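User: Teach me something about this protein's shape.
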Amino acid sequence: MASLEELKEVRLKKKSILEEKGINPYPSDTHQTHTLKEVLENFKENEEVVLVGRIMSIRGQGAILFVDINDGTEKFQAVFKKDENISYIDTKEDGFELFSETADIADFIEIKGTLFVTQRGMQSIQVSGWRMLTKALLPIPNEFYGLKDEEEKLRKRYLDILMNEDVREMFEKRSMFWKTARRFFEDKGFLEVETPTLELTTGGAEARPFKTHHNDFDLDVFLRISVGELWQKRLMAAGFPKVFEIGRVYRNEGSSSEHVQEFTNLECYGAYVNLDQGKELVKELYIKLAKDVFDTTAFSTRGHSFDLSDEWIDVDYVSEVEKQTGVNVLNATEEEMESALKKLGVKFEGKNRERMTDSLWKYCRKNISGPAFLINHPKLVAPLSKDLEGQEGKTEMFQVILAGSEIGRAHAELNDPVEQDKRLNTQQDLIDRGDDEAMMKDDEFIEMLDHGMPPTFGFGFGERLFAFMADKPLRETQLFPLVKPNKDK
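Assistant: First, the predicted structure itself:
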């Protein structure tokens, strides 16, 4: 079996054959008259057409060749017959001989000819002329030269998509997923906006940020960890009633089936919308995404099954943690919380109260299939949510729980500037004590609240929802996830 290097040498010689005949193996123009999808949808026998595509297979030998091409819209069969006087377009060369001598699977070609139906009933094109559009120097994957492991598939995603129709269909669904979400919010009267991805302070979530340097201003800046939460709230103060943004988010954290460092999120904010109204909005959105993109509301993933058309139950944060672990996170001491986590075998970072509270909840959530709303979060883990009236230490917030994971987060946004300042000072204290996931303080945001922001509902979710519906690890649903370099090259 020849190596890839040896195969490349053979193809380089074929490229040279074309060049020696004055033929450019990489022309910039084509004479395409139809896409392959158009030909199949409106097939007219005896019609003359010019088609283009990548060679996916070559069958036969001698006087007749059957060639399958793919132009990205469909696949189609071309028939090369030696006795048909095939030309190499715009030259005096024998097209059949030159094809046999220089063409390979993976090349891109242009074909001129007449549509016909073979004796076996296959819609095809009888080739009268052809030319090379791109001479490929390496083969596409097969059983000998395939993509050997998952890392290789992600590193060479273009080949993975080319050879696997299910992967291609997944990315078409992903595009439809975000298109559906955008249309949903536009139809609800939300204005799409864009907010900065470079920030002086990161806000809107608790996560370790990526840090870089702004040369012109000579200052350090951070890549955002939320889709402009604190900026979109400024737009509430500016008088926009409803806004949303779809954009990239960056978190310098670990990788898992549910976590990557760069991903797409959507966040929306609505003035004068309360949490109960927000729940109905979110349910409607999730059900629409499920039906429009996956044609179902029932899913199985991560060892769980859930149906979005079922009743969405409320799960009280404090009560659920106490039921599953015996710890009341509002009044337990830090020593008691640490002891419980060790007893449960839960690994956690940071021995401060906020991190241990969050770790206890994360232990519990894996037992909830959903659909459910996790409600009444402790104030310490919800620095941007309003206090829940009559419930000391709790806030007006919910998270969507599906298949044991958090798939969306909402707040009755805190708009009391004095209380918000106090909460962010607590977060800053955590940072000063070494917690690099705590929320940075943004004094200009506090000043905006001093000017007044209306009662506001805020909600965000990300591509994790798509990954759960597709039953795939998160990075497999990304076109080009970050992959470590191949050290063998």
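Now, about its shape. The chain has two domains: 4-134, 161-312+370-477. Residues 334 and 353 are 6 Å apart (CA to CA). If you'd like, I can walk through any region in more detail.
User: That's plenty for now, thanks!
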